Amino acid sequence: MRIDPFRLFRPWLRPYRRQVVLGLGLLLLAQTITLVLPLLLKEAIEHAERVTEADPAAGAVAAALAEVQVYAWVIAGLAVAGWGVNFGMRWFFTSVSRHVEHDIRGAYVRHLLRLPLRFFQGRRAGDLMARATNDVEAIQRFLHHAFRMTLMGVLTFVLSLLLMSLIDWQLALLALAPMPVLAVAASLVSVRVRSGYRRVQEQFGAISSRIQENLSGVRLVKACAIEDREIRDFEALNDDYVERNQGLIHIRSLFFPFTGLLNGTSMLVVLWLGGLRVIDGSLTLGAFVAFNLYLIRMSRPMYLLGRMVDEFQRAAASLGRIGAVLEHPPEDRRAPGRDGLRGEIELRDVHLAFDGRPVLDGVSLRVPAGGTLAIVGRVGSGKSTLARLIPRLLEADHGEVLIDGAPVERIPLTTLRAAIGYVPQEAFLFSETIEENIVLDRAPGPVEWAAGMAQLDPAEFPDGLETVVGERGVTLSGGQRQRTALARALAREPRILILDDALASVDTATEEAILDNLREVMRQRTTILIAHRLSSVRDADRIVVLDDGRIAEEGTHEELVARGGLYAGMHRRQSLARELTEL
Q1: Of 296, 407, 291, which Cα lies nearest the Cα of 347?
Q2: What does pTM read for this prediction?
Q3: Residues of 308-322 as b/e, b for ≥16 C-beta within 10 angstroms?
Q4: Using alpha carbons only, what angle is made at residue 294 by residues 148 and 283, rounded to the nearest 5 degrees?
Q5: DSSP class of residue 506?
Q6: Strands 496-500 and 526-530
Q7: 504 contacts 532 by C-beta, under 8 angstroms
Q8: Phi, psi torsion values for 282, nearest 5 degrees
Q9: In the chain, which stretches have pLDDT less than 70?
């Protein structure tokens, strides 16, 4: 299938059409100057020939030499003008390519951050990063160099062929003889280059993902002494990357010399037959020189055709990889506005599956505004998944999730998430200060109060809340990271507070102190409390026990212990473990 590069890149070039038009104008002017020079050289040579035939006594030699000097000055002037025009042309095209690079990368990252959480499940972070770096750079390289070369090559080829035909149409036909073969070869190469380059970029994404995983999990790698295994795995990925690139190298290694062979053959034939015409007087020496200069100029685009095809197919494959992400629909933010939320939560027959595996199966529950619901259950029972439905980090396959009686899909995401303080199991911190991690992009709020509620004492840190935590909070302990995340949620002063095992990394004494602080906070808010330690949930208004995505039990702490079911079994085991620890 024929691919139109202008159609493919038009949306990104449209904002810079003025610069593109100016660049194209300068390109046309540069080619015109370049193609006029052989004609001037032809005339100069013919005048020089007349000098040798002129009668010195008549003063014709001096007149002819004067004309030759005029041609020389005109050629020199056009050469200087051509330099200036080429400078402007390259400046415009380079500027456009950098702006397009900026726009594509910005649009990609903005869109990426607006995609639903489900999009990222099963996708590698390194591959998504590679699209924003390596793929965007491939597009920029094409627009900066190959795009200009393609336009220049087309103009040079067409205009050179036209002027060659005016000089000698029979020789021009001979010069065109290799073109059908070259066109077929370029078509075959383009298909293989695009598919091959896509495989190369996919492997580059795999390498990026592996590096990202090793850097993020460097503590685990060192603690388990698996450096050698990780090095072997990385070398295998790297070897595969080289192997895939070698496939492209083989194609280019065959195609480029092949085009050179065709061009050389064409020039040999033209030199032989054209030389014979000069000898028999049917073609002047100046015309023959001009014809060969045009042939050389026309052969350059033919020789560079492989490079143009290669660069374009790389850029097209990269743009396709980026487009695959941009085509994915973002989270729907077009719901009608609401003034605020009271915090009543209701789930009605909610079903959710990942890759065909049910995670939530017919869950229905209700939490009144200001109430506290605790959710407990075994690992993998669906607790965290249920919590993510409320801020629409995930969306149910079937059933409804309602806030204040309205489906969450009808509440603007900014309104919904501004009303929710969410503390996930794994607390993520940016490479900023503790205070900046608590405040994020909002105006400074009750930071000290939130830190106090979370038992986050500034004295724990060398620079207090101004301590920089390092990448992903690497300089903090697990408990400090969780307490920072809790302070972040409390500083939002949300109507709904979701704590997803938010105290798992703190010791029992700290947990009890935090829970004491939170009791007053939780009375004023709707709270979803997920925990494995039942001591964290015993004061909840209602406790739900999940088992394989279903609600197995529901009631208060006392009711569930008396019932003797799953909750009672968990309570007995944890009580026994606590007693053994105290002995």
Answers
A1: 407
A2: 0.66
A3: bbbbbbbbbbbbebb
A4: 170
A5: S
A6: parallel
A7: yes
A8: -80, -10
A9: 1-8, 46-65, 68, 146, 182-183, 186-187, 190-191, 194, 219-220, 223, 252-253, 255-257, 259-260, 263, 299-307, 332-340, 441-445, 472-473, 581-583
